[in-house]
Design a protein that fits this description.
The protein has 426 residues and is α+β, with helices and mostly antiparallel strands. The chain has 19 helices and 13 strands.
Length: 426
């Protein structure tokens, strides 16, 4: 078994912060790399009592996808119902990432007294490359967290605060699949936490970019980092513009589809953390509800944005039904197939390719990572294996040469080449 320091040093750590939140010896601290923005734990072995709780709540070691229902549903496992949805308030809907469902839903739950608060994330205004996770107890606090944060986010402080709230309070938690997996592991080993968290919501995720992706964009549009006041990854309708608000009041817009858009730069393998390359969880296996963009032709003409929602548990479905007539959001049944098709590329990259990715990028450590993941039993064709081998060979070279550090000095054609290379894993 790998130790937590070994997981951190190998770059398999997702930076969730769960280990810090559960350490009773105060032997672990979280630090943030100032260049990449990635979070990583620092250990003081002199304080450690070897209780082992930190490794038990580590997603990198214990990630689990349970037992898939059928081969066709390998990426999502058990589920109760699927829906298409969007916020009724049009301004809210257009200013959110893709329909505004999550904040509208949480706001309705809070107003009806079904939750006492929600654990949600937002960018820090005035310091936009940094993010914070807050325990929101008011409608206004929840609304301040609408929109996407394509950046590293650490939950250690929020998890610590959540452990301290009253046993009688009920909380919803929103995060990426890695955060929700960490939460599930904490709830398994900390029964008192299980009583407080009544609902978990996971956002379907391909990966998050490092801060170097932003620096690349800043350089190519002629903006200095110290001139930036705020960043908005999405909004102004769907799929949304990437906006950079400068301190002088000027706003730079990069529309979706542009060579410097969030769909091009932030999705580049060059700016992806190593842990994301081997992530086995596209949607949040441990969540009650999964949420994503409706990347389907029948929804693509709706420029105001539509979310697809998958209720994975009866708890998730019941919460949706309880506030479905609140007037905060529209909710219509759709097929589970819609949810899968809308995310097919992400699901394939993270499930079918998982075993190959871990083997190529982590070598002899593969048997110690994600040990509870049941890989899809798929026979890969010779062509697919060659494509994946070529792709992961590129990644190993890029990681070894640390190409992300010099990418900003290279022409845009270099980024387009890597975009083309990334197609090989689909």
């Amino acid at each position: 078994m790998l130790t937590l320091p070994e997981i951190s040093h190998s770059a398999a750590c997702v930076g969730c912060g769960a280990c810090v939140a559960v350490c009773k010896d105060n032997a672990i601290q979280i630090q943030q790399d100032q260049e990449t923005g990635l979070f990583f734990p620092i250990f003081d072995q002199t304080k450690c009592s070897q209780c082992g709780i930190c490794i038990k709540v580590c997603p990198a070691a214990n990630w689990s996808n349970g037992i898939p229902t059928t081969k066709d549903l390998f990426a999502i496992g058990n589920n109760a119902a699927a829906y298409s949805t969007f916020a009724i308030d049009k301004e809210h809907r257009r200013s959110a990432a893709s329909g505004g469902f999550v904040t509208a839903f949480l706001g309705a739950l809070l107003k009806d007294g079904l939750i006492d608060g929600a654990v949600v994330s937002r960018r820090i205004q005035g310091d936009p490359l940094r993010s914070e996770v807050i325990l929101a107890k008011t409608y206004e606090e929840i609304m301040s967290c609408k929109g996407s944060i394509y950046s590293p986010v650490c939950f250690n402080k929020a998890f610590e605060q959540l452990r301290k709230v009253s046993q009688h309070e009920r909380w919803a938690v929103v995060g990426l699949p890695c955060h929700i997996q960490a939460l599930a592991l904490m709830m398994k080993h900390l029964p008192t936490l299980r009583k407080k968290v009544c609902l978990s919501i996971s956002l379907v995720c391909g990966h998050f970019p490092t801060h170097r992706a932003y620096e690349y964009t800043f350089k190519h549009i002629g903006v200095k980092k110290n001139e930036v006041k705020n960043i908005y990854n999405r909004g102004e309708g769907w799929p949304g513009n990437f906006r950079i608000e400068l301190k002088d009041g000027c706003v730079k817009r990069v529309p979706h589809g542009d060579g410097l858009s969030w769909g091009m730069v932030f999705s580049s393998p060059l700016f992806m953390p190593k842990a994301c390359h081997i992530c086995p969880d596209p949607g949040g296996y441990a969540a009650d509800i999964q949420v994503c963009d409706a990347w389907l032709p029948k929804f693509s003409k709706n420029n105001d944005g539509v979310n697809l929602v998958l209720a994975k548990t009866d708890i998730g479905r019941e919460f949706l039904q309880k506030v479905s007539d609140s007037g905060a959001f529209s909710l219509s049944h759709c097929s589970v197939d819609d949810f899968i098709l809308a995310n097919k590329r992400v699901f394939i990259a993270k499930t079918r390719n998982h075993a190959v990715a871990v083997k190529y990028l982590f070598g002899n450590k593969e048997k110690f990572l994600h040990k509870n993941i049941i890989d899809i039993d798929a026979t890969l064709s010779r062509c697919v294996r060659l494509r994946l081998r070529f792709y992961y060979l590129h990644l190993k070279i890029a990681l070894w040469l640390k190409l992300d550090q010099i990418a900003g000095m290279l022409p845009k054609a270099f980024l387009f080449y890597w975009k083309a290379v990334s197609l090989l894993k689909r």
